[in-house]
Amino acid sequence: MKIRYVYLLLIVSCIANAQQKKFENLDQYNPLSFIEAVIISESKDKSQVFYTMHDKFSENWVTYKDVEKLIPLISSEKKCLNFMNVYSSYIPADDYSNVGGYAILFINSFRTKSKIKMGLYNCPKTNKKAVNEILIWWKKYKKK
Q1: Domain boundaries, the chain
Q2: Cα separation of 142 and 124, whole Å?
Q3: Where is 97: in which H helix or E strand?
């Protein structure tokens, strides 16, 4: 019974997201506008814990200017919706991402010169170790 309910919830959610055009192309976003789109504000539905999109980030999506704006966000624990790929069958129950987690993910993509891959489901969260590593890297990187 519980499994049927979960699948029904997924179907209803996918239909609702499709009607709200949630399957957007990521190229219309930059890292900051993406974070703004997934932040859980007072006006958003608190029962929704994921944002459904295709996992197709373009090469070099994160720029130096983006990193400058993302650095102050890496410690933020402000709640965000999780990333859920349109092909995912997993439905998160009650876990949330946070702003710092997305900022860290995007900065690390820039640092490693790699394409962002969220996979089928991603719930990025900030953590002190990653924050410290990024701050040390950023201090050195800016001197170049």
Answers
A1: 2-143
A2: 25
A3: strand 97-98
53-91: string of b/e by CB count within 10 Å (b at 16+)?
A: bebebeeebbeeebbeebbebbbbeebbbbbbbeebeee
Q: Which amino acid is at 45?
A: D
45 token code pair: 């539905």
Residue with tokens 């820039």: 110
Spell out the per-residue pLDDT of the chain, length 144, in tens: 555 554 545 554 554 444 444 455 677 889 999 999 899 877 666 667 777 887 888 888 999 999 999 999 999 999 998 888 888 887 777 788 999 999 999 999 999 999 999 988 899 999 999 999 999 999 999 877
For residue 104, with 0-12 CB atoms within 10 Å meaning exposed, 13-18 middle and 19 or more buried, which class applies? buried
